[in-house]
Amino acid sequence: MILERYILRELLGSFVFAFLTVLLVCLVGTMFQIFRSFPGLGFSILMQALPLAIGSMAGWVILVAAATASTLVYARLAAENEITAMGACGIHTGRILSPAILFGLLLVVATYPLNEYVVPWTRHARRLVGRQSTIEALKFPPPGNQDFFVGSYRLRYTDYRDGRMINPTIAKLKGSTVIMDYYAPSGLIVATDTSLKIVMTKPNYWLLKKNGQQENFSAGNDVTIDIPLDEYENALRQQVDWTSDELWELYFQSRDKALRQRLLLFLHTRYSASLAPLLLVLVAVPIGILVRKGSRLAGLGAALPPLLIYFVSYFVFQGLGDKNRVHPLVAAYAPDAFLGALSALLLGGVSRR
Questions:
Q1: What whole-number distance in Å separates Cα of residue 214 and Cα of residue 140?
Q2: How many domains does the chain have?
Q3: Same-domain check for residues 81 and 213
Q4: Which strands, in side-by-side order, build the sheet including 164-166?
Q5: CB proximity list for 266: less than 8 A, separation 6 or greater
Q6: What is the pLDDT of residue 108?
Q7: How much is the pLDDT for 40?
Q8: Among 182, 166, 12, residue whose Cα is nearest residue 104
Q9: What is d(CA 71, CA 291) in angstroms, rounded to the nearest whole number?
Q10: What's the CA gap between 191 and 135, in Å, rounded?
Q11: Any idea of the CA torsion for 315, 239, 149, 224, to the nearest 10 degrees?
């Protein structure tokens, strides 16, 4: 037990270090993005967005930290010949690997409620904060080329000078289809806490009719477009942010095959993502033993291949699942299957040494 506690303590310490380091890097990137997207509002938005960013990013950071910590610890043990000494003392490989398995299981226990409750809630809350921040930004429109989404409307302009937009365009979307598009040489933004009006000066515009044909117009005076804010500010949670109970309930109630496929993808992706830390640990441990390097940079470098395998396969199969090119279960579990096969291969090689 002393040996197992020693290795587990090293794993936990390295994990905390790696987690905080990677999280800090991600938060710095988030800060720059906020300051660039909302000049003049950065600090007020930052206080709301950073805690939510931690929740939404934590699942991905755990994967990076788990792989890095496992590789680092077992690489150091191998580099200092501690694993060789354990084998010479008759300690079975299973005892050497058992702390890593326990470590991976602890991460699964932590990751599942994170994916089930924290990430969906923070993702929805971030969306609301971003929307409200857009309204605040439009009260004092920034200069330069800008692109804003307000509910189903998209507002763009090339510059903002002397209180007016230069070359503004505003489009209304229904899903991914543009059903209305305005263009004008200049325009005004009239934004308050309760209303948003876009005044287009002598615009040309078109509307999409019910038969799918475009109807073109031009105006010789100002045209005011009211953008409703009630639905925008109180947006309902998207299905991907529902709890598993809500998703399963809708799944069994629905007879729409496409909807059922999408719900299955949401559900099983959540389950498979919760297993990923354990599988990454089982891949990273034998890689660390084989690499036999104990520096933190070497540990991170050796952890990159399994992380890249998982991330690339995750996004590829998620895209295929979204487009119904593969079954939702295949899309959800294929990345885990790749890691599982790789871990079996590597652990078999280590156990035969």
A1: 34
A2: 2
A3: no
A4: 159-161, 164-166, 186-191, 196-201, 222-227
A5: 239, 240, 242, 247
A6: 95
A7: 53
A8: 12
A9: 9
A10: 7
A11: 150
The whole-number pLDDT of residue 311 equals 93
CA-based torsion, 42, 43, 45, 49: positive or negative: positive
The rounded distance, in Å, linking the Cα atoms of 235 and 251 is 22
233, 249, 284 — which closes off a domain? 233
Residue 338 to residue 272: CA distance in whole angstroms = 12
Residues 124/237, Cβ–Cβ less than 8 Å: yes
d(CA 260, CA 327): 11
* pTM of the predicted structure, to 2 decimals: 0.75
**Least confident among 168-172, 216-220, 230-234:** 230-234
Mean pLDDT of 239-251: 89
Type of residue at 270: R
Residue 194: Cβ within 10 Å count = 8
Examine the fold and report which residue of 179, 211, 233 is the final residue of a domain before the chain moves on. 233
Range with lowest mean pLDDT among 18-32, 117-131, 311-325? 117-131
CA distance 80 to 299: 14
| Burial classification of residue 163, based on how many CB atoms lie within 10 Å of its CB (0-12 exposed, 13-18 middle, 19 or more buried) | exposed
Rounded to 5°, the CA angle 219-224-225 comes to 110
By three-state DSSP, how is residue 182 classified? strand
Same domain assignment for residues 15 and 129: yes
The burial class, CB within 10 Å (0-12 / 13-18 / 19+), for 220 is exposed
User: Which residue range forms the structural domain that includes residue 182?
Assistant: 152-233
Q: Strand, helix or coil at 155?
A: strand
Instruction: For residues 126 and 24, state if they share a domain.
Output: yes
User: Which secondary structure element, helix H or strand E, spans residue 196, and what is its range?
Assistant: strand 196-201
331 with 277, same domain? yes
CA dihedral sign, ordered 317, 318, 320, 326: positive
The letter for the amino acid at 148 is F
